[in-house]
Amino acid sequence: METIAYIALGSNLGDRLSYLRSAIEALNDHKEIAVTSSSSIYETDPVGYVNQGKFLNMVIEVATTLSPFALLDVTQEIEQKLGRKREVRWGPRTLDLDILLYNHENIETEQLTIPHPRMMERAFVLIPLLEVNAFVTIPTLSEPLTDIIDRLPDKKGVRLWKQKDGEDVFALFES
Ligand SMILES: Nc1ncnc2c1ncn2[C@@H]1O[C@H](COP(=O)(O)OP(=O)(O)OP(=O)(O)O)[C@@H](O)[C@H]1O
Ligand SMILES: Nc1nc2c(c(=O)[nH]1)N=C(CO)CN2
């Protein structure tokens, strides 16, 4: 059965825009994944480990026939292929792909937790997520997402960097 999933992308090393584009292309090239929508691109102050460069962050919606674990394998392969090294926890990275939501499933294993365990603390995730789907619902959450975002300290550090213009995800990457 086809699933709708939301994936957060982040990059703060090297050619950040090009890492985002390559990751979206690689996902869309997979025969069991179609990228169906995206947010704008935001430039965001680093959260957690603050002594690092600004991130570009965005969220995409995908339709997929992969299981959540197979989708995680694909996102991790793409991170590796695009040069990701894990050195400092929450530190600089060429590319980070986090699976936020997978239909309305709740998954809690050592390898994979969905909804993503830290998404509700991150305006750099919730602002683009709400842009992609203003009616998105999160399992076990009754409060409106907009109220949650209002309380998040990092929301002031989230700035629109490249506005989405129309429905074509790849148009975002044309200059
Ligand atoms: N929903 C999820 N999406 C992606 N990875 C997840 C998810 N839930 C659990 N993980 C696990 O988290 C591990 C660490 O991920 P990663 O190194 O990307 O963390 P990070 O980006 O440094 O921090 P954060 O998870 O806070 O964004 C991965 O190996 C993966 O198995
Ligand atoms: N602004 C911003 N800060 C972060 C980010 C990120 O993508 N954007 N990712 C992190 C680890 O996943 C830690 N901190």
Secondary structure elements and pairings:
Elements: E1 3-11, H1 16-29, E2 33-38, E3 41-44, E4 55-64, H2 68-81, E5 96-102, E6 107-108, E7 113-114, H3 123-132, H4 145-151, E8 158-162
Antiparallel strand pairs: 1-4, 1-5, 2-4, 3-4, 3-8, 6-7
The structure holds adenosine-5'-triphosphate (ATP) and 2-amino-6-hydroxymethyl-7,8-dihydro-3H-pteridin-4-one.
Enzyme class: transferase
Protein name: 2-amino-4-hydroxy-6-hydroxymethyldihydropteridine diphosphokinase
EC number: 2.7.6.3
Describe it.
By secondary structure, the protein is of the alpha+beta class. The protein has one domain (3-165): 7,8-Dihydro-6-hydroxymethylpterin-pyrophosphokinase HPPK (Alpha-Beta Plaits). It is 26% helix and 26% strand. The chain is built from four helices and eight strands; from the N terminus they run βαβββαβββααβ. The protein has helices at residues 16-29, 68-81, 123-132, 145-151, and strands at 3-11, 33-38, 41-44, 55-64, 96-102, 107-108, 113-114, 158-162. Strands 1, 2, 3, 4, 5 and 8 form a six-stranded antiparallel beta sheet that branches. The protein has a two-stranded antiparallel sheet with strand order 6-7. The protein is globular, with a radius of gyration of 15 Å. The N and C termini lie far apart (37 Å). The mean pLDDT is 93. The site of adenosine-5'-triphosphate has 13 residues, from strand 5 and strand 7. It comes from Geobacillus subterraneus. GO terms for molecular function: 2-amino-4-hydroxy-6-hydroxymethyldihydropteridine diphosphokinase activity; ATP binding; kinase activity. One of its GO terms (biological process) is folic acid biosynthetic process. It catalyses: 6-hydroxymethyl-7,8-dihydropterin + ATP = (7,8-dihydropterin-6-yl)methyl diphosphate + AMP + H(+). It holds the Pfam family HPPK.
